[in-house]
Amino acid sequence: MLLFVFLPIAAAALIPVFEKVWKELVDFLANAVALALLVLALAFITPLRYNGPMVLNFSELFQFSMTFYLDSLSLLLLLVINGVGLMALVYSIEYMKEYGGKGRYYALFLLMLAGMNGVVLSHDLFGLYVFLEVAACSSYALVAFGMKHEELEAAFKYLILAAAASALILLSIALIYARTGNLDMKLVSDGINFSLYQGDKAIVFMIILLVAGFGLKMAMVPFHAWLPDAHPSAPAPISAMLSGVLIKASGVYALMRILYNVFGISNLPKVGFMLMGMGILTIVIGGILALVQTDYKRLLAYSSIGQIGYILLGFGIGTPLGFAGALFHLMNHAAFKSLLFLNAGAVQQATGTRDLNRMGGLAKRMPVTALTSLFGSLSISGVPPFNGFLSKLVILVAAIQAGHMLGNHIYYWYAAVGIGFSVVTLAYFLKVQRKAFFGKLNETLAGVREVKFAMTLPMIILALLCLALGIGFPWLNQALLSPAANTLTSLFVR
Amino acid sequence: MTILLWVILLPILYGIGVFLIPKKVKYVRELIAIIGSGVSLAMAIWLLTSVKEASLTIGWFNWGQLDINFDLRLYAFSRFILVAAAGFAFLVSLYSWKPLGNHPRANEFYAYLLVTLGATSGAVLANNFVLMIVFWETLLITTYLFITLGKNGAYRTASKSLILLGISDFVLILGIGLLWYLNRTMTMTQVLPQVTTGLAGVAFVLMMIGASAKAGAMPFHTWIPDAAVDAPLPFMAFLPAALEKLLGIYLLGRIGLDFFRLDHSMQVVTMTLGAATILFPVFAALVQKDYKKLLSFHAISQVGYMVLGVGTNVAIGVAGGIWHMLNHSMYKSTLFLTGGSVEAQAGTTDLRQLGGLRRAMPITAVCAFIAAASISGIPPFNGYFSKEFIYHGAKETGLWVFMICAMLGSTLTLLSFLKLTFSTYMGPATRTPEPRNPGTPIREAPWTMTVPMLIIAAGCVLFGVYNPLPIGLFIQPLISAAGVPFEETVELTHHAWQVTPVTILAMCFLLLAVVVFILGRRRAGAAVTAVDFIHDAPVMRSLFDWSEKRYFDLYEQGVRFLRWFSNIVFRYVERISDWIVEGIARLGVLIGEQVRKAHTGLLAMYLSWLVAGLLLLLLLVGGVF
């Protein structure tokens, strides 16, 4: 289990050294590490079913205990992180050639992977924070990797805003420690739930700090403003990682883990409403803004904001079905958003622009990109038999079910908004497809060619994955999603 | 038994493989098609003789009472259809070597042929309604694609076939939905036969229409004559002649035997549909001047016999209807193959220009005569026996009028085939038309075309003369499987050669046809125009003219109505809703632009949003606590 964290760190340390020796080796090494991690994650699926969650304790090594904990929720996230990571790394082999400095790039990328793996494996708040920062710092550097004006400005804004968020999180952790005297999640949970601290107003304050802090990390409205600047200007595989994985691992996962497993939602019904309300707001704002964009990647960034809203909505509902839907949508969004960002990168590399109004008719020249982009667009819009349809359906059904059970009509409105903005999603993705790929070939783009195989391979794999996740939902649910969803329904039991 | 899965998958995989072979590679695709369908044929024969019964179930979706599983079952009925389908695929792929030799999209043809074979196998093996529908629908697509391979304007006919078959498939799906409602299961072996009254009757009618329309019964038949002209000929020999009958009547047989118990009123309905389908097209066939179009009308007409047979609800009648399906596939595909042979060698299929080809193309002529005799019901060919069964079945229901209709249909069938064969093959040799390459005489078709014809024609003879073979091998097992007592099934074989009053009556009707033909030819002077007096008869003339103008064509009338309707909708409904929709769009963009402007890009602004959001949350959520 420790390999998840330490293997990429070790590789990250070694890669710049290797780069001096032999350039091609670093490509191979980085991808090998990612592949190894993915295989490792897959290997854990069956043992986890039979043996239950695994714990690793290092109390003697540090002053504060550092514990690692692998349960089905963590495993789901691990699969997502390392899977998308592998795809982005394969893609980077070709894409990063124009940026140069591959050694540093891979080192930072692997650090980010290590950080995210650490976040999902961490069982104590200190470890969570440390790995969160590791991932975040490497992401700041990666956003700025191109070293041009746009990237530097975006990275700077991202850095400042995320640092503010981290400060809020740190403040909350400090308050938790002050309250309970512990940082280990289980012990904190016991402390908050089984003692006199129940119903304390300070608890509410801590929760809101966490929501604000992690909310920024996951680009919840109104904390979202860094994302539309950071994601477009980053190199495409990094955008894919950020949008597809980082905001989820460091944002959504961390918040949900803490809220549901540590604090326990049954104590705080209002928090559920808050999450749902923020989710709806995020869906609406994200959708509206995406409609009026003309920059390909910026549109995708706003779309990510909108989809995070759906995930928040699912988590806010609080029923196991809602969790399952949110987790499935998390997984799906990782798949198709990273696919869409890789497509955008391919288009940018081939045509030299991100402006949709200057593109047109690329489907003839770049058939693989166009087709995988179509798969991705259909998935995110919720068209059967792709995966997006099922995950959105589950979230909406969970909302209606909950409304029915509680007799609260607001849930139905939420579901209606969800469906409505699904249509909006379809609308702006059709716009993208139409402007970029279909229609007549723009004369200035006459010399465009399809990108190389190393870039098309991850796109094809992700596109097929979108289809497979959609069709294979029954098996997926049984194997991964239901166990993961069930872990959130109760406090930690160890 | 996973071999069932392979029976379906292999042809589809071959088909995809053929599709992917680049167009320049010449003989590989034909060989793959021939060998591939040969392998399927071998597997099907093995399943027929050795395996006999098998099943395979892969569970997929079981939610309450809705069970959609990948459920396959091999039993008496399905196994012989597998053999028939594979056999036809094999022979037609061999046959198509010459006609499609230089076609620019030949690889698509073989691909569709193989995929159709796979889908047909899947549809007959399916034990789950939803699975069957999936395969059934695949045939819609391959039919459409096949027709587009024909002449330049063929896509219109292709669309017509797609829409007509699509509507009938929709009717079938509705019927299946009702059947599910009555039985609460989608698995065929779990369906209990229902008496066809009330809701079950509605379900029966819907499914019957869907199944027989696939086979080509009225009123969804009008695409077939158009396809005969537009589509490539081997397609006609393969799908409308053979596979669609196999599929449609297979389903109809199962509807009559396994899913429903017909009551008297449904019997009459089905038999009426059958009788109408026999008579109307055969009148149209009488006046055709094109070899292929004439054959296509007969394809429709013969379906009427099958529907009539199944509708009698008597063991011998149903057996006759199903056997007629097999026989018809054989002789109709032979006839189409002879038509293709004539087209390939003589360059035309216009009956006015053809004549005296028996000397130049003896093998084709012999096959055509054998097949024509079979379709008309002349002993000892196979058509005679299956028609006999149908007549006896109709007689046993007590509704004599249907039996008379069927016999009259035979008369007209024989009449039109006398016209066809005499005008094409008999007559003086001086009427032979210009061959394709002027200067070279017309020759017999190459072996790749004549061998399939001969094989199937020999089958017609064999199944007629030695009829215990098909009855015992194919028909008896499936009738027994449907629960008919053993004594009645044994009777079938004995019945075949018996001469009863019904038989004599049928022979009289046939003789009538011969007499009419001889008289007509003497009056008109040539075989081609021998039956035109029917066309020129007072009432008939108007009917024929209207038919030519497509007044009776459901599709054409439907299209005309839709054009008028859409005009109205455009003027009064569309413009208004456009205005509304564009208004909403403009509003949305306006809102979006305002929100976009709020994102100034200034870091300080974003930080203040962060603080504001935090405070808001504290107030709203914290305060309410």
Short description:
The complex is a heterodimer of chains A (494) and B (625). With 494 residues, chain A is mostly helical.
Description:
The complex is a heterodimer of chains A (about 500) and B (about 625). Chain A has 20 helices and two strands. Chain A has about 500 residues and is mainly alpha-helical. Chain A has a domain at about 265-495. The radius of gyration of chain A is 21 Å and the shape is globular. The two termini of chain A are about 15 Å apart. The mean pLDDT of chain A is about 80. Chain B is mainly alpha-helical and about 625 residues long. In chain B, strand 1 (about 55-65) and strand 2 (about 65-75) form a beta hairpin. The termini of chain B are far apart. The interface of A and B includes residues 211, 229, 274 and 291 of A.
Topology:
The complex is a heterodimer of chains A (494) and B (625).
Chain A: H1 3-21, H2 23-43, H3 45-51, E1 54-57, E2 67-70, H4 72-95, H5 102-121, H6 125-143, H7 149-180, H8 185-193, H9 201-217, H10 227-233, H11 236-263, H12 269-291, H13 296-317, H14 320-351, H15 362-365, H16 367-381, H17 387-406, H18 410-437, H19 453-471, H20 473-488
Antiparallel strand pairs in A: 1-2
Chain B: H1 3-20, H2 28-51, E1 54-63, E2 66-74, H3 76-95, H4 106-125, H5 129-148, H6 154-183, E3 194-195, H7 198-215, H8 223-230, H9 233-259, E4 260-261, H10 264-286, H11 291-311, H12 315-346, H13 362-376, H14 382-396, H15 400-424, H16 447-465, H17 468-481, H18 486-496, H19 501-524, H20 532-536, H21 538-548, H22 554-598, H23 603-624
Helix pairs in contact in B: 1-2, 1-4, 2-3, 2-4, 3-4, 3-9, 3-12, 3-16, 4-5, 4-9, 5-6, 6-7, 6-8, 7-9, 8-11, 9-11, 9-12, 10-11, 10-15, 11-12, 11-14, 11-15, 12-13, 12-14, 12-16, 12-17, 13-15, 13-16, 14-15, 14-16, 15-19, 17-18
